[in-house]
Specification:
single chain, about 200 residues, alpha/beta, 6 helices, 9 strands, about 30% helix, DUF6942
């Protein structure tokens, strides 16, 4: 793995890039190389996802697969996202996963650190000052995996979640959606469609 272009620009730790357009938050980390000690963002190279899958098992394979399926389904019904998100050349979600997802310039992130508390800092048109909350980045989307993890974050992040049933919640002002864990059963294809619908609401 190579360091992200923006590594060290904030307190985020995870895979992908800092200040990504799509930010997914997960409560656990894969037991792979030094990821248990990672305290910055690291972009992946082609082949890294498969290497993590081989060492860490089917659970992490599902996480990466569902992430790729989500982005592929989302951009197919959101022309604005499709136009600005790298990977338009990918013919399938599998190709997107293997050549774009969480790699440098992908505008995607899988964060092991929790969302930072919201801060009312000005956006200068190019980006936020170092240390600015990723929750306030212009046009960024934030997805928290799992109801239990999301509820544990409410007090520390200031999230104001409105629940849509037992599994999904939204905080439109923080551009944040809570969804089931990235697993074929918990976040099935039908539920991915529901998640995309909620994510599109953030732009209204």
């Amino acid at each position: 793995m190579t360091s992200s272009l923006y590594a060290g620009a904030s307190d985020d730790a995870g895979l992908g890039v800092n200040y990504a357009r799509i930010n997914v938050y997960i409560a656990n980390r894969p037991n792979y190389q030094d990821l248990s000690l990672l305290n910055t963002m690291h972009s992946l190279n082609t082949g890294d996802i498969e290497a993590i899958n081989r060492q860490c098992g089917n659970g992490w394979r599902k996480v990466f697969n569902v992430y790729a399926k989500l982005v592929f389904a989302w951009r197919s019904v959101d022309p604005a996202l499709h136009a600005c998100l790298p990977g338009a050349h990918s013919a399938s979600w599998q190709a997107y996963r293997d050549t774009v997802l969480l790699q440098q310039d992908s505008q995607t992130a899988l964060l092991f650190s929790p969302p930072l508390p919201q801060q009312d800092l000005p956006y200068n048109g190019n980006g936020w000052a170092d240390g600015a909350s990723t929750s306030k980045i212009h046009n960024a989307y934030h997805i928290i995996m799992g109801r239990t993890y999301a509820k544990s974050l409410v007090e520390t992040t200031g999230l104001n979640l409105t629940w849509h049933g037992e599994e999904f919640a939204i905080d439109q002002s923080a551009r944040t959606v809570v969804c089931p864990y990235f697993d074929y059963r918990q976040l099935s294809n039908i539920k991915i469609i529901r998640l995309v619908e909620l994510l599109k609401l953030l732009n209204q």
